[in-house]
Amino acid sequence: MNRLRDLREDKDLLQKDIASYLNMSQTGYSKYEVGTNDIPTSVLIKLTIYYNTSVDYILGITNEIKPYPRAKNVDEN
To answer: In this predicted structure, what is the pLDDT of residue 30?
Structure first.
């Protein structure tokens, strides 16, 4: 998924940095970026919070990077 790579590179981060944030291996995370593996919902939520964007943007459904207003009960855990 080019959006994941673009978001990561815009912050000058390496795959290992995001993998560490997600508590997973760099290899596992790289499979999300290239589209080999589907991204679990819990990981998508963490990524949208981290990058301050929406699932729709990450998945390429919209080009609007701005996130939707968040529900009060949504957090990273």
So the answer is: 97
> How far, in Å, CA of 24 to CA of 29, rounded?
7
Least confident of 50-54, 59-63, 73-77: 73-77
DSSP state of 73: T
- Are the C-beta atoms of residues 1 and 60 closer than 8 Å to each other? yes
Assess if residue 21 is contained within a domain: yes
- Residue 40 belongs to domain spanning: 2-58
Which of 10, 20, 21, 15 shows the shortest CA–CA distance to 49? 21
Q: Give CA–CA dist 72/49, Å, rounded.
A: 13
Q: How big is the chain by its Cα radius of gyration, in Å?
A: 12
Query: Is residue 22 pLDDT above 80, yes or no?
Result: yes
